[in-house]
Design goal:
alpha/beta; 11 helices; 8 strands
């Protein structure tokens, strides 16, 4: 179970899904729900709907952007700067997601630059790491994950405003999920890396959450693992079972 020093975290990444009505229906469900005070809940809608959700969503639930750029402003068509999110009181941003790495070809150093810019502007970051299937089968999971994290170490970021989301790429949207032990093993190794590469304090305090086909059926067993501090939920965050995933904290 999550350490009492690390508040359980459940994030919902809506990705490029939902129209206004569907998202407002989700907001209505979240607003009516009796949420566990021991869980920090953050949702990330498509950027077009951030402000509409901000007006309607209960204050106990925070919003996240799904991406930001490096610079504060400039000729970057289609991008959103971190200070724009900050100005609109959007406190979180997701960076380094495997879809940004694979589809949009974002490099490790570019993701690190974006993370530095977000933190500099006062945002908190959900920083995603994870290996592809061929990398796991080649026993390179830790090598890949540590390489992704090492760019942040080089940038000397403030880890107190970072939540690390371990998302094995082979489990995202596939219906496959790492076993609780597989997930725990990687989370424990990430914590060991933090202790060695950053500090013991960072290792003890940084929340490491799991993502990859998390649903209401598997969340309890995953959440019981000592180094899993919550979840980054994809498809299930668009369904009523998202509330069940948030509520699973009470069963740990």
């Amino acid at each position: 179970m999550v350490s009492s020093n690390r508040k359980f975290f459940v994030g919902g990444n809506f990705k490029m899904n939902g129209n206004r009505k569907k998202l407002m229906d989700i907001v209505e469900g979240l607003n009516k729900a009796q949420l566990d005070a021991g869980v920090e809940v953050v949702v990330a809608p498509p950027s077009l709907y951030l402000l509409a959700l901000h007006e309607q969503l209960r204050k106990e639930i925070a919003l996240a952007g799904q991406n930001t750029y490096i610079d504060d402003e400039g000729a970057y068509t289609g991008e959103i700067s971190p200070w724009m999110l900050k100005e609109e009181s959007i406190p979180w941003v997701i960076l380094g997601h495997s879809e940004r790495r694979s589809i949009f070809k974002e490099s490790e150093d570019h993701i690190a630059e974006k993370t530095v810019a977000a933190l500099k502007n006062g945002l908190k970051v959900i920083f995603c790491v994870g290996e592809k299937l061929e990398e796991r089968e080649a026993d390179k999971t830790l090598e890949v994950v540590e390489s992704q994290l090492d760019e942040l170490r080089k940038a000397k970021v403030d880890w107190s405003d970072i939540v690390i989301a371990y998302e094995p790429v082979w489990a995202i949207g596939t219906g496959k999920v790492a076993t609780p032990q597989q997930a725990q093993d990687v989370h424990a190794d990430i914590r060991k890396w933090l202790a060695k590469a950053v500090s013991e304090t960072a290792a003890k305090q940084t929340r490491i959450i799991y993502g990859g086909s998390v649903n209401a059926k598997n969340c309890v067993e995953l959440g019981k693992q000592s180094d899993i501090d919550g979840f980054l939920v994809g498809g299930a965050s668009l369904k009523p079972e998202f509330l069940d995933i948030i509520a699973c904290h009470s069963k740990l």
